[in-house]
Write a sequence for this structure.
């Protein structure tokens, strides 16, 4: 009988090791996975993820035990690492923790939505990068990132983005009361804010800046060579730098002012 019990315990432990799913006595469910590769990162629903640079692709996720059956960790058809909670339960308790640590040598896109967050901890160099935050989600870079070509960022529906980067081209769009803050250096800047959104590029050194603010939005920029500025529907643009103002247009109680 004792031998049978020991054999069963060994079998259960082995099964957990293969699937990477473990629950502890404190009510925390942990899932750990490794992958051959992934190109993008998608995170949603309460999860707070950190991205660190390493020589392999993997993720470790901790969620409350009651959410274990609702957790999905997978690679989708577009080779994105997907981490999501599919539960329709109401917002969790403050004491509940939804954490993920993602390890990868590279990636080229992040999509985060529905009260989730992604913080990139390590320094990365990208050829191109696309970052999208939606629905009260956030993306931040702790260290300065280098983008050799194009960086495209988008914040929608009360989302937030805080970045420090060096890039050739930066295209930024903020809508629906979202906030984007960017520092660092880019050659060409193209920004668009609408529906009470904000874009703050006061600490971003640029050569040329194309700026459009609509529907009670605010944008702050600087440029050394050229500005194109357009504001409408009670919006505000503030600019600084030695750049020539090649085009300017303000209407419907909007303002464009040099600081």
């Amino acid at each position: 009988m004792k031998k049978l019990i020991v054999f069963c315990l060994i079998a259960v432990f082995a099964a957990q090791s293969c699937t990477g799913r473990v629950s502890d006595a404190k009510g925390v469910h942990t899932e750990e996975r490794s992958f051959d590769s992934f190109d993008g990162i998608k995170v949603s629903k309460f999860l707070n993820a950190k991205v660190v640079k390493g020589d392999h692709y993997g993720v470790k996720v901790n969620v409350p035990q009651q959410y274990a059956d609702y957790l999905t960790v997978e690679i989708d058809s577009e080779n994105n690492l997907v981490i999501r909670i599919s539960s329709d339960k109401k917002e969790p308790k403050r004491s509940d923790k939804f954490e993920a640590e993602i390890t990868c040598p590279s990636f080229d896109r992040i999509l985060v939505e529905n009260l989730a967050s992604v913080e990139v901890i390590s320094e990365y160099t990208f050829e191109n990068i696309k970052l999208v935050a939606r629905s009260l989600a956030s993306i931040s870079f702790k260290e300065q990132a280098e983008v050799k070509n194009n960086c495209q960022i988008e914040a929608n529906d009360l989302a937030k983005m805080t970045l420090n980067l060096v890039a050739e081209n930066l295209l930024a769009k903020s809508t629906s009361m979202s906030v984007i803050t960017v520092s660092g250096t880019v050659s060409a800047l193209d920004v668009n804010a609408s529906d009470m959104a904000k874009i703050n590029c006061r600490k971003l050194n640029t050569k040329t800046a194309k700026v459009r603010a609509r529907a009670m939005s605010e944008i702050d920029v600087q440029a050394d060579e050229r500005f194109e500025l357009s504001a409408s529907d009670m919006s505000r643009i503030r600019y600084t730098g030695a750049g020539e103002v090649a085009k300017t247009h303000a209407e419907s109680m909007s303002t464009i002012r040099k600081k």
Q: What stands out?
A: Residues 140 and 162 are 5 Å apart (CA to CA). Confidence is low (pLDDT under 50) at residues 1-19.
